[in-house]
Amino acid sequence: MTKSSSKSALHQSKSTPALPHVNADSIQKIKASRKRQFSDEELKDLLISGNKTALGRGITLVESNQSSHQQRAEKLIESCLPYAHKSIRIGITGVPGVGKSTFIEAFGSLLVKLGKKVAVLAVDPSSSVSHGSIMGDKTRMENLVTEENAFIRPSPSGDSLGGVARKTRESIILCEAAGFDVILIETVGVGQSETTVHSMTDFFLLLKLAGAGDELQGIKRGIIEMADAIVINKADGDNLKAAREARLEFNRALHLYPPKASTWQPKVSLCSALDNTGISEVWEMINEYKKLTKKNEFFEKNRHEQNKFWLLQTINEHLKQRFYQDPQIKKALKDQLTAIENNETTPFAAAKLLLNLHNEL
Amino acid sequence: MTKSSSKSALHQSKSTPALPHVNADSIQKIKASRKRQFSDEELKDLLISGNKTALGRGITLVESNQSSHQQRAEKLIESCLPYAHKSIRIGITGVPGVGKSTFIEAFGSLLVKLGKKVAVLAVDPSSSVSHGSIMGDKTRMENLVTEENAFIRPSPSGDSLGGVARKTRESIILCEAAGFDVILIETVGVGQSETTVHSMTDFFLLLKLAGAGDELQGIKRGIIEMADAIVINKADGDNLKAAREARLEFNRALHLYPPKASTWQPKVSLCSALDNTGISEVWEMINEYKKLTKKNEFFEKNRHEQNKFWLLQTINEHLKQRFYQDPQIKKALKDQLTAIENNETTPFAAAKLLLNLHNEL
């Protein structure tokens, strides 16, 4: 199933470099397992035992639009479910240039050193246009990518945000079943992608740069409202003073928002992925958040709410698709819109007519 | 059809006071026409001729939840459509206490003096709980209510926001067919009601008071984004200085927003309904807006977009209702939510199962 086309979302797998400190035996073993075709049963067992090649293949099934793959993916996910849900899921957002990749490189490497298994996924609806993806330039995570206990997967390409969301949510389950206990989900601020990532994570982190004043201008207010932490990146050298001022301004801004259902008071912190400062503080903060929300049961309650949200969301999208993609409805809708423009009918009368037509189909 | 119950949305009709300057003959005529039952044909003809009793009866049909009334309402609206769409529709919002009623009283009276026919409607989803309605206390519009060329109707009660929206949109058409050329639609900032009113008006006006600093705090950002004008009310006496400062601050805030599709630059102005200052300036501003948007064709384009929005909105709501109100789906949905909580299925697999069940029903 592994394709070598440069357009494949899998290009990072094949390019894992054979660095000197990886011993020759494991290279042979990895190469062998890569070439093998697994039965679905083998795939499941390997995945649950933590095999990254099996995990990659599983996610490829999840991302495939072929119906035979989709059926196999559904079975795989079902058998993985009892092993899943034991991670913390962290959403990371920030505009391009803010240093998401270098932050994830530093943060992920720290977590691996602390004995964690770290999976990095991405939600990038813009890749549906360009067939590129964020994290495509994987050299920006050159250390993390070589870690045995790290797994990096770019955004599934060529899809709607709804499709990417489903695929990412299901990939999370596979990563968790493979024993990954920290899932980082990266996104850029394109359209609704932050809301999507926020709806599938436990903790939502907004990366910012200290700019020249006007910190709050141009930032989508909804994103600040979602953030559990604002981390000001590149707080080093000449930037340090501006970063401290930005921290003050964001702290002030955060106090204007109503308290969160989690009872967590969002925090602003500084870090430098370059100097490797402030990184472990982010992890401490997330642990503090986890402790609080496990105790007051928000953690589990939030995951249930998210499940419910995705269930209803999926149903509503399908109901609409089924209606609007019907050729007869398409034609009638066009006619009714013309009739409305000509003041021959109202939107409500037209809706009634279309719904009746749909019932008769 | 006119009920005398104090809970009726019609209580303002029966309480139109017989003031000294109304001549006895017209009182007799009005009383007679009130008692009469009209045929549907008569109702239509009277309504189109501008008879306010017929208009009130028509709106009562539109607001009724009885299916026989709904059928008659649909026919009435259809026959009114060719006479409609010739007004300017102005949305007016502001928190309770900002002086909406006194502003509308002053603004509406000015328009009547200028030879306009003014209809005042309201969208108040909170009335669905209390069965009350804004403008219930009609003594606050005691002059406007006696004007021959003014028509005041409180919010339809006991309904969802979606229901209120449809009823208000259809009432607008009846008012327009009856020759009302300025339609004022009042709302309070409850939930989505501003967005609803914004989606059915040409011009959206936000009424504000000058407070003690912090003008922008606590105000829903989305509302400022929708506003074509921010009018600072009660800019009189001791308030005048604070009002001028608030104008500065709002002007600054408005410049942070991206330009509007209408190309209109939203304005901030001061007024005092008490001193009757700044009221005619609001009307001049709306005329300026109308001139601009008629010329660049945004006016018509916006109305078409609004029609399309309401068409799709109505369809989507019905599709969801039809699905979720099915007793078998209700039960299966509950079971699936439990299965998700027990990690036995995913939201996406559950959605698929429910959609398949729906197809078989």
TrEMBL record, chains A, B:
Domain of life: Bacteria
GO molecular function: GTP binding; GTPase activity
One GO CC term on file: cytoplasm
Annotated Gene3D superfamilies: 1.10.287.130, 1.20.5.170, P-loop containing nucleotide triphosphate hydrolases
Residue ranges with Low complexity bias: 1-15
Region of interest: Disordered: 1-26
NCBIfam families in the cross-refs: lao, PRK09435.1
PANTHER family for this protein: METHYLMALONIC ACIDURIA TYPE A PROTEIN, MITOCHONDRIAL, METHYLMALONYL-COA MUTASE
Full protein name: Methylmalonyl-CoA mutase metallochaperone MeaB
